[in-house]
Amino acid sequence: DSGVTQTPKHLITATGQRVTLRCSPRSGDLSVYWYQQSLDQGLQFLIQYYNGEERAKGNILERFSAQQFPDLHSELNLSSLELGDSALYFCASSPSGRAGDTQYFGPGTRLTVL
Amino acid sequence: KNEVEQSPQNLTAQEGEFITINCSYSVGISALHWLQQHPGGGIVSLFMLSSGKKKHGRLIATINIQEKHSSLHITASHPRDSAVYICAVSHNGGATNKLIFGTGTLLAVQP
Lengths: 114, 111
Prior knowledge:
The complex is a heterodimer. Chain A has strands at about 5, 10-15, 20-25, 30-40, 40-50, 55, 65-70, 75-80, 85-95, 105, 110-114.
């Protein structure tokens, strides 16, 4: 158990809908990362937050947004969902968010868009 | 060309065999990570390296910064080692720790 929790575990929804994925980092970790794992693209970095502030952005679509709250949990919002958004979404956390930190991964949320 | 390349993509071994998975990268890095992903999806961090060699149980990871190459070795392999092994790098630059991933190596260890 990494200490990182993600909810929900599974999510099935329809095209055009909006969903929110939630992540709670390990106790004491200030940085949260979101990754997407799809069959055709593999694992890709989406976005990183550190202590409430956005620190780095990857290939995150404009339909996707995220935030990190004062209690350090994070939410990833996906809107106008398309079939191609079906994937595993992982959250990870690390103490400082700087290069060289070990990242601890949550169990993932499996999103299926029908 | 991907910034992080792994080989082989698939590997089948007999229980007890010595296994090597290779990773090459083309960017400047702060650290290289080896991750393990079991069927069902969970990802576990095995090693983080910026130089030299690390050992944990039957797993050994090495990195050659000059050659931009890392290897993950598994000694006395066991069926429970069956998983996808993923190499990832943290870019040089310090302020962010975003990871760039290889495509993974699917390992099957047969009894």
